Amino acid sequence: MRLKRNNIKPRKPQGARCKKPVLSPASSFEEYDEDFSEPCPTVTHSSQADVGSDAKNELLKPGAMVNSSPLPGPLRTGSPWVQVVGHAGNFRTGPDGKLLKKYCESEQRCLQKLMGDSLRPYVPSYYGVTRHDQQDYNTMDNLLAGFDSPCIMDCKMGTRTYLEDDLRKARESPQPRKDMYEKMVAVDPGAPHPEEHAQQAVLKTRYMQWRESLSSTDTLGFRIEGIQKANGTCNTNFKKTKCNEQVVQALEDFVDKSVPILRSYQKRLKEIRLVLENSDFFRAHEVVGSSLLFIHDRTGKAGVWMIDFGKTLPTPPPLTLDHRTPWVEGNREDGYLWGLDNFIDILTNILSVLLE
Ligand SMILES: Nc1ncnc2c1ncn2[C@@H]1O[C@H](COP(=O)(O)OP(=O)(O)O)[C@@H](O)[C@H]1O
Ligand SMILES: [Mg+2]
């Protein structure tokens, strides 16, 4: 049963009751996330002379805050930065403690706009493009700075993690995919329809939508992507974490049932929600695949920031989004605020149980 999304704030998320899972072990599922998400195109320059010759360089002109030095060092062991999830090899740290993420034009556009939006305090500060080893990087604040052995959680927000454009492209070349059929069967042998079993293949569009139905993306409008605890243990096996009870358990474990930490997160999320509801940027963007990064440490310090804007696209004017209306193809709604409402309600419920 799905939550009613036109309820602005469902009081008690019920949508994700555990059904008896018919799923095979998680290991077969590991790379399932990677295969259709169109990664942000990265730009590799063969020489300095390339700069200024392509569309991207419009963004590198004055005002774009290009940063060509000092050059960053490799990611060091013992570095205060850790990556919980995401594409391996996409990041470096700079000697000044900044974080470098492989260049992606749409992410740069978003980060630049966000620096002038009311959301600015809730995203990493952006410092322009840094080039290293013929590779451009978007340079931003390392949000872990100032935390002492932090616990980190990445939650992907929204009811959809593919763009409408991804669906359109998949439809334009509707070849049945054997590889996707095999991944589907590896996760849930009962998932393919009889005709898909007969063909031993599924369409990419079908695979994309089936994929979303496995996690709480579909039922709650967010999903936990990964959690790293202070002791270094890291769990990224949440792709089938769908029901309320599983999410609650993961969150309680993440904060070690600390009421003060939960309260800090609840307060910060309510603040973010209020700012999102009034943000010009947010109103005019389809925010897909973006995460909230939760960070706290044993000193009691806690914060939440929005990250990952590689698949965040402006809506065609004059279309604006409320981020709560259910998605139907063409309306571009992403369910971000619906998911945030549910997240806040879940935190509130956890707190009230802990305080009983
Ligand atoms: N500004 C940041 N500060 C600290 N950690 C970050 C920051 N941006 C990303 N990370 C870490 O890197 C991971 C992946 O980041 P993300 O931007 O989502 O990359 P991808 O596009 O590969 O999904 C996050 O889960 C988080 O652990
Ligand atoms: Mg990400």
From TrEMBL:
One of its GO terms (molecular function) is inositol hexakisphosphate kinase activity. It comes from the Eukaryota. Residues 1-51 are annotated as: Disordered. It catalyses: 1D-myo-inositol 1,4,5-trisphosphate + ATP = 1D-myo-inositol 1,3,4,5-tetrakisphosphate + ADP + H(+). One of its GO terms (biological process) is inositol phosphate biosynthetic process. One of its GO terms (cellular component) is cytoplasm. It is an enzyme of class 2 (transferase). The keyword Cell membrane does not apply. Keywords: ATP-binding, Kinase, Nucleotide-binding, Transferase. Coiled coil: none annotated. Its EC number is 2.7.-.-. SUPFAM superfamilies: SAICAR synthase-like. InterPro entries: IPK, IPK_sf. Residues 1-20 have a biased composition (Basic residues). The keyword Calcium does not apply. Belongs to the inositol phosphokinase (IPK) family. This is Kinase. It comes from Clupea harengus. The lineage of its organism: Eukaryota, Metazoa, Chordata, Craniata, Vertebrata.
